[in-house]
Amino acid sequence: MVSKGYLVFFVFLVFLLFSVPVFSQTITILHLNDTHGHIETFGVIANEVNKIRKEKGEKNVLFLHAGDFNTGTPISNLTKAKADIDAFNLMKLDALAIGNHEFDNRLNVLKEQEKRADFPFLACNVYKDDTLLFLPYVIKNINGLKIGIIGVINQETEKIGGKVKGVVFTNAVDAVQKYKKLMEEKENPDLIVVLAHLGDYKKGDRGKYEASRQLADKISGVVIVDGHSHTPLKTPININNSIIVQAGSNGKYLGQLQLDLENKKIIHYKGKLIKIDLNNEKDQRVSAKLKEHKTQMEKEQGFDVDEVILKDNQLNLTLDGARQKDTLLAQIVADAIKVETKADIAFLNGGGIRSQIKKGKITSGDIYNAVSIPNKVVLIKLKGDEIMDILKEAAMLIGKKDGAHLHTSNLTWEYDQGKVENVKVNGEKINSNKIYKVAMTDYMAKGAGYYTKLKKKESEFEKTFEVIGKILIKYFKDHKTQLNDRRFEERNKVILSMNMQKSVSSFLIPILPLELVKEKAGSENRLSNSLIGGVDFNTIWNTSVKICPYDESKSCG
Fold first, then answer.
1. What are the backbone dihedrals phi and psi of residue 166, each rounded to the nearest 5 degrees, phi first?
2. CA distances, 93 to each of 39, 66, 465 (Å)
3. Would you say residue 531 has pLDDT above 60?
4. Is the terminal CB of the chain with fewer CB neighbours within 10 Å at N or C?
5. Can you say whether residue 542 is alpha, beta or left, with left for phi > 0 and alpha for psi between -120 and 50 degrees?
């Protein structure tokens, strides 16, 4: 017979057995995105990754890249990112999502990059001939947890990707939902991470294309390691119990997200950005590998990135909103294209301007970085009426498509409420029937960046020249003495007609009188396209000298 005391003790043991809490498990996700060839940061990043792995335990850390490792600096571009990938291999990167700039090179180059990598390239919504081009997901074991990582790219790549012929991009949200369900059924993961090159945009910012916020709104309980918009999210965003993180761009930050999980649920999270200071300690193996690539590249290309081109540049050639309006830097680049090709006209899309050129000493590398996308310059022939069609398309894109703003050389034009007017080539009215030699990047010539009227086959190119970065360096070398005298010119004017003025004036009455708007815009009574009283005038008209006073030291956008 069991005594009463033993029975009580047995019941107590059973109670303890079933009431012991399930302890949470902690993992750390380190993340980069949009490094764009800025390998100068990789030594410091590698050292930071090493320190965190030592602190947290190597088996407890997941290291991810959310895309756009291509396109940015001479060493990266001219080695086809071999330098970048070798550094990531040394850093033991766990996985990488494909970004839109991975399609700046031909597909065979991207597949060679994939072979070189010791980590998987992921994309669940990229097809060729009805076959996925990359792994849709991968499973990683971190701290005893099964982590499923799905890669996805922005569908907008179908419009903005440089070399996407024959490649199909499907809806990002639909694709993630499909593979999330498949992974849950097949792998039963403890956590799903979506490694996304989508961007931190509000609904409608990218037209029909869905971004990370829309993904989170439709898929609950995942971690979204994001890229594309170059957003430094200092703290994670929580939407629908899905966590979004992003680490800016160009290797300026390393993202760190710590997660506590219990029963396949995130019960606590904490995220931050670690600022990368180039003066901090570097990983010696990574630094040595990158130096090796630099030496080899300069030997093969005959191109010294540290060569000083101008000792005392006086122009502050900022980005200054080149994606939405005319700028001095963009005009200089367009002129460089025209001069090199001996064309009648040159075109340049605003998204082709990637970095500023500062005052003071500038090197070949500084100049190259300003137009670092490795697009070649081509010459094509167009009739005057074809050019008019392109300008009409450019006018329709004003303020609507990021990076699509059209910069020109030796061509001026006006846009007034739906009409393209007063188009002049070399100061003379354009002739609809005349054939003009027009220079531009092969990116534009193939109809990318929303310029469908420019869709040409390579066989239609009259001539192909060097990549745009090398052409700009040559232009700076050849025009050293004239450059500091350059001033912004009036090339693309958007006219605010009297009817538009009246409608804008009456609309602004309760917010800000038009006279006051004009007064604030400057002594020449020009309207600024800045946000006034909550109205974003970028959505109504483009900025030009007629509308926005140009200031070399400031942005008026």
1. 80, -5
2. 15, 11, 36
3. no
4. N
5. beta
Q: Specify the pTM.
A: 0.74
CB of 245 within 8 A of CB of 31?
yes
Has residue 497 got a pLDDT over 70? no
CA angle 418, 422, 428 (to 5 degrees): 155
Residue 439 DSSP SS3: strand
Question: How would you write 247-280 as a 3-class SS string?
Answer: ECCCCCEEEEEEEEEECCEEEEEEEEEEECCCCC
Give the 3-state DSSP-derived string for 110-141, with helices as H, strands as E and coil as C.
HHHHHHHCCCCEECCCEEECCEECCECEEEEE
Give me 453's structure tokens.
């009227």
* Cα–Cα dist 414/56, whole Å: 60
Write the DSSP string, 497-530: -HHHHHHHHHHHTTT--HHHHHHHH-TT-PPP-S
Give buried/exposed letters for 315-325 (b at 16+ CB in 10 A, else e). bbbbbbbbbbb
547 vs 277: CA distance, rounded Å: 40
Partners of 237 in the β-ladder: 244
pLDDT, residue 302, reads: 77
Cβ-based neighbours of 495, under 8 Å, separated by 6 or more: 414, 415, 416, 417, 421, 546
How far is 214 from 227, CA to CA, in rounded Å?
14
DSSP at 317: B
Per-residue pLDDT tens for 413-459? 998 877 899 999 999 999 999 999 999 999 999 888 788 888 888 88
Encode pLDDT of 316-373 as tens digits. Answer: 898 878 888 889 999 999 999 999 999 999 999 988 898 899 899 999 999 998 998 8
Nearest to 113, CA basis, from 131, 87, 139: 87
**Percentage of the chain with pLDDT > 90?**
64
* C-beta separation of 226 from 244 below 8 A: yes
Distance CA 95, CA 150 (A): 10
252 class by beta-carbon count within 10 Å (0-12 exposed, 13-18 middle, 19+ buried):
middle
Pick from 502, 506, 546, 538: nearest CA to 522: 546
- Nearest of 371, 368, 423 to residue 394 by alpha carbon: 423
